[in-house]
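CO-FOLDING WORKSHEET

Operator: S.A.
Ligand of interest: NAP
Run index: 267
Mode: holo prediction, single chain
Checklist:
[x] sequence pasted
[x] SMILES validated
[ ] output reviewed
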Amino acid sequence: MKQKGKSDVGVALITGASGGLGLEFAKLFAEAGYNLILAARSGDKLSQVCAELSARYGVEAASYAVDLSSPEALERFISDISDIRIDYLVNNAGFGDTGYFHKKPWKVQQEMINLNILALSRLTHHCVQGMVQRGFGRILNIASTAAFQPSPFFNVYAATKSYVLSFTEALQVELAGTGVTATVSCPGPTETGFHTRAGSYKSRIMSMGLMSGEVVARKAYKAMMKGKTLVLHGFSNALLAFSIRLTPRSIAPKAAHYFMKHNDDAQ
Ligand SMILES: NC(=O)c1ccc[n+]([C@@H]2O[C@H](COP(=O)([O-])OP(=O)(O)OC[C@H]3O[C@@H](n4cnc5c(N)ncnc54)[C@H](OP(=O)(O)O)[C@@H]3O)[C@@H](O)[C@H]2O)c1
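OUTPUT RECEIVED:
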């Protein structure tokens, strides 16, 4: 991909851009004239997104159909994009899976850890080196309000998002003075395909309502562009993140347990 678009403003790599928040991020970058590299498993959807955004905004957009939970496919993908200068990285692809850990198939937990932690870290490691050398870059990692406390029934997912939060906050401090910044977004329940795959539609927390993906993505995008460290979405999510700091460690998982339980108790 050449560095050419509406104006020579750089290239954004967005994972999980075939739908949900990732698609919203792709629209925001395209609207601002950035060229795009979009990755997800659904090649057909991605090609369509690329064609639509190129036609509408005059940007270059390349799609990569890749299962980022496969370490081998992840390395092939990195090799394929190694010649491209990436100025903006949005590590958005991720998924959750609700239910008792001991009843869940290991394969799904392994894929979640690989996608939510390994792929995010590996892509950051690949991109951040060039960014630091060039003295500019923006990284946005998508965590969750689940990152702030252990969450029974969302056990592995919440732990992966705690990793994303901790990793990004630490990275931001390391990067001080380099011209590169790392931002972590912690959305609460948001209206995307996430809850269908996670099986979380019946969780009590859903009664708090869902935010719009477009609104969440726009706020995270702005925070990344400004180089902020942490972005929370909406008053109740911000309150949750703050109040958990004052809550004894033994109480927090019990509160999360209540909210992650299904309404019909059928887990
Ligand atoms: N929605 C919420 O309530 C919520 C709340 C907090 C945090 N988040 C986080 O927000 C991020 C985006 O999720 P979303 O809400 O937009 O969910 P979504 O609508 O399910 O979108 C997930 C995206 O990730 C891609 N993806 C999933 N597995 C993949 C894999 N193995 N390899 C490559 N791409 C993969 C999906 O595309 P393919 O299926 O085509 O691969 C899709 O583009 C995730 O990190 C999620 O944990 C969501």
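REVIEW:
Residues 3-7 have pLDDT under 50 and may be disordered.
Strands lie at 11-15, 35-40, 61-65, 88-91, 137-142, 180-186, 190-191, 211-212, 230-232.
[x] output reviewed
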